[in-house]
Write a structure and sequence with these properties.
alpha+beta; seven-stranded antiparallel β-sheet; 5 helices; disordered N terminus
């Protein structure tokens, strides 16, 4: 299987750190305010998963080309207990992560999407921010999971599995979505405004 840099998790970790330190304000001028979009968001605890016999490892680097092979191996796993194993959204560069997460969510809310940011260092991936209504609960979750990964799931799709670097007291969270599929999640977004 092809080797890739673990950029999506790293990028999301940086994004979470930016949100934590700036209370959700990003320093990009390429920002599009989003209105009237609600997502069902759950955040679950990520579990390291390594099946040495089948060669499936949540710490391994994958590309989109690997998914068919790995999916056939996942079918052979008989018992994963209370875990779900799923792919994240692929990044614009074709890298993709596999995440194993506990089925019981740490937080589950309907959220209003706040804004989308095009950040030069993200290439064709767009950062989308939303805010949990229960900021106190979100702060507790992030505080208790510093140095660990969380699965961020939007409308039943595993988006990213970022590592938490800081307690986030603002209630904000971000996901990274490739530009070429962003309309699936934000149908009315004006991508031209993000290009300027």
């Amino acid at each position: 299987m092809a080797k890739r840099l673990a950029l999506p998790a790293w990028l999301v970790s940086i994004a979470l750190a930016v949100v934590a330190t700036a209370c959700g304000n990003t320093s990009t001028t390429k920002t599009e305010k989003v209105e009237s979009v609600e997502w069902n968001v759950t955040v679950n605890k990520v579990v390291e998963f390594n099946d040495t016999i089948l060669g499936i490892n949540t710490n391994q680097d994958y590309t989109v080309a690997d998914t068919a092979t790995v999916n056939s191996l996942i079918k052979e796993i008989k018992h994963v207990g209370n875990l779900t194993i799923a792919w994240t959204l692929p990044s614009a560069d074709g890298s993709i992560e596999i995440g194993a997460y506990e089925n019981e969510p740490l937080i589950s809310e309907k959220v209003s999407v706040q804004r989308a940011n095009a950040i030069a260092s993200y290439g064709d991936d767009i950062q989308v921010a939303f805010k949990f209504a229960d900021a106190v609960k979100w702060a507790g979750i992030t505080r208790e999971n510093i140095g660990k990964r969380l699965a961020v799931i939007v409308n039943s799709q595993l988006m990213n599995v970022p590592q938490v670097n800081n307690e986030i007291t603002s209630g904000y969270c971000v996901v990274i979505i490739p530009r070429d599929i962003i309309k699936q999640y934000l149908p009315d977004i004006d991508l031209e405004k993000l290009n300027r």
